[in-house]
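Researcher: Good morning. I'm working through a list of sequences from a screen, and I'd like to move beyond sequence-only analysis. For each chain I'm collecting a predicted structure so we can compare shapes side by side. This is the next one on the list. No need for commentary yet; just the structure.
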Amino acid sequence: MTSEQRSPVLSVDIIIRVGRGRILLIERANPPHGYALPGGFVDYGESLETAAAREAKEETGLELSNLKQFRAYSDPSRDPRHHTVTLVFTADGIGEPRAGDDAAAVLAVDPGTPGVTLVFDHGQILRDYWESVR
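Model: Good morning. Structure tokens for this chain:
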């Protein structure tokens, strides 16, 4: 298959607010390893909003409220596995976070938490988010 015949893969990522100004990250159980926003691929026939709620529930155990679109990210090099386009959502988490599905752990962080290695372009996404809520 040539590059002209392929299309980017569609994904969603969710900035889940938990507690006082903190957001939830997952530690990835699968490569690439490191911390990431909860999220994943959109299934065929699934809306972006449904995919975001599903991925949040599978990876963190949380229900979402106040789900809103934030931004789209499409740099072809943002995911080392293949070209993905992601729509990032923001939401408030409801429930007690717990790691599930392909998440090894969950971690609530404040802006600029040191020592957290973020994968993909999630560092840029979080910088954009923190800048937008100042």
